[in-house]
């Protein structure tokens, strides 16, 4: 890379079909939760808080806990045994611990123009927001139909896990525009190379 060239900053994606899987996707193609600001953006983009909610209490401890929850979700979704065969059980216990906290209390408020919008009854804390994601993971892991629809992207080196809601349940890629397109281009190149040979 030439000096002075910045590395690409990947935008978070919210297309995996579940909030907990969208959190899991923040590891690819590189670490996206590399700062508190990026975590705040993910929380807002994921809809964990209403638009415009200030996350003034967010600090490095939030980053550490959200990354831990993400890792624990990955262990359960990928069924990664790790060096300790009990690691999936430990991951489930940690997800359950995160899910115990009370989630942010919503309330309805009227704006100046009379529109009703969702707000929160107080500033959301770290434990409350972690509980939102952890409870989504609990819902996913205990829903046999959703678990049966979990797929890992068929793209080369793509670890993204998503819920396949396509007709016929034949979706192969996390994104047709990225991984699917890469696969189609690679297939075309292989055919072209064979034709030349």
TrEMBL record:
Domain Zinc finger CGNR: 150-191
Pfam families: ABATE, zf-CGNR
N-terminal signal peptide: none
InterPro entries given in the database record: ABATE, ABATE_dom_sf, Znf_CGNR
Highest taxon listed in the record's lineage: Bacteria
Protein's name in the database: CGNR zinc finger domain-containing protein
Organism listed in the record: Streptomyces bluensis
Organism lineage: Bacteria, Bacillati, Actinomycetota, Actinomycetes, Kitasatosporales
């Amino acid at each position: 890379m030439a000096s002075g060239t910045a590395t690409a900053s990947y935008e978070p994606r919210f297309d995996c079909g579940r909030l907990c899987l969208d959190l899991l996707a923040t590891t690819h193609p590189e670490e996206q939760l590399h700062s508190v600001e990026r975590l705040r953006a993910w929380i807002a983009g994921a809809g964990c808080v209403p638009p415009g909610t200030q996350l003034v209490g967010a600090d490095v401890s939030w980053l550490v806990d959200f990354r831990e929850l993400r890792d624990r979700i990955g262990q359960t979704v990928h069924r990664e045994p790790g060096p300790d065969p009990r690691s999936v059980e430990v991951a489930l216990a940690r997800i359950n611990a995160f899910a115990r906290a009370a989630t942010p209390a919503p309330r309805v408020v009227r704006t100046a123009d009379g529109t009703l919008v969702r707000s929160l009854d107080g500033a959301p804390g770290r434990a409350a927001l972690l509980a939102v994601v952890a409870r989504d993971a609990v819902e996913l892991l205990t829903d046999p139909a959703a678990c049966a629809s979990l797929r890992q992207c068929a793209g080369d080196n793509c670890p993204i896990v998503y819920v396949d809601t396509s007709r016929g349940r034949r979706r192969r890629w996390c994104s047709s525009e990225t991984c699917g397109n890469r696969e189609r281009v690679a297939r075309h190149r292989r055919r072209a190379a064979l034709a030349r040979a």
